[in-house]
Specification:
- With 194 residues, this protein is mainly α.
- Helix content is 53%, strand content 8%.
- Strand 3 and strand 4 form a beta hairpin.
Length: 194
């Protein structure tokens, strides 16, 4: 979710800097609309049957992992785009830590309390409206890759992973390199060519 907020903030910043946002829609994407539709569909399925559904069953875990793998595949197909390598690294880091921790993104009880101070947490349980699982630091495999970085925004708190940081860097590179300002010829150059 923080990636969505980051993308919105990056687009707003690009607009404030008078970047050419329309250039994003003109980027040639490999895999086309069908692959993009599959990825979007998987993330909608992830939201409806995983994030905003209770429990932590095998089907939910499979949907979560499959949506990440499909996104990684789409990014690898488009490795030529600005920021794609950072984005791919972020997805892979998140996939690895989720895979070695039972298919869910681990978060420690103290970090979860930082994000949701009003909620009680139980170790080994997936909190509501989340793709996380509460695990102690000692029980977390590859803890350094889990949601350990606290983020405070005026309207909300988050905990993000190193993979999420790479995703945000990749998104920033894509937005700002794709929307770079076009060089306008100087007045004198127009007279020479005109």
């Amino acid at each position: 979710m923080i990636l969505a907020y980051a993308v919105v903030l990056l687009v707003v910043l690009a607009l404030l800097l008078r970047r050419d946002i329309s250039a994003i829609g003109q980027v040639p994407v490999r895999g086309g609309k069908k692959m993009a539709a599959v990825v979007v569909g998987l993330f909608v399925l992830q939201a409806t049957s995983v994030i905003y559904a209770t429990g932590q069953n095998l089907l939910q875990m499979a949907i979560l992992i499959l949506s990440q793998v499909a996104l990684a595949f789409l990014i690898l197909l488009n490795h030529h785009l600005p920021g794609a390598k950072f984005f791919a690294i972020g997805i892979i880091l998140n996939l690895v830590v989720m895979a070695v921790n039972g298919g869910w993104m681990p978060v420690t009880p103290s970090t979860y309390k930082f994000v949701h101070p009003e909620q009680t947490v139980e170790v080994g349980v997936r909190p509501p409206s989340s793709k996380n699982i509460i695990l102690s630091r000692e029980e977390t495999n590859l803890w350094i890759l889990s949601d350990i970085i606290p983020v405070i925004l005026p309207w909300r708190r988050w905990a993000v992973s190193l993979g999420d940081v790479f995703l945000i860097i990749g998104a920033a590179l894509f937005i700002f390199q794709t929307t770079s300002k076009k060089e306008k010829p100087l007045q004198g150059e127009q007279l020479k060519t005109g």
